[in-house]
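Sequence only, no structure available. Ideas?
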Amino acid sequence: MKKETADILWAISLIICGTVGIIAGLTGIIGVDIPDVLTRVLGVISLIGLALLGYTSVIKLKNRKKK
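Reply:
I predicted one. Tokens follow.
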């Protein structure tokens, strides 16, 4: 995988995880009850984002060691 592609995917995964975290945090602080389905969808999106973050982090480390 090219360095640029890994960097873009890594940034996208950080944005995904951050957005889900902010949404979950704000709904908890405000005390808004969101539907169970939305909570589960946010959890699945977060898991996908974390898997992508881990994968791209390993790719970035491998690319760094090649230099």
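The helical segments are 3-30, 36-66.
Hope that gets you unstuck.
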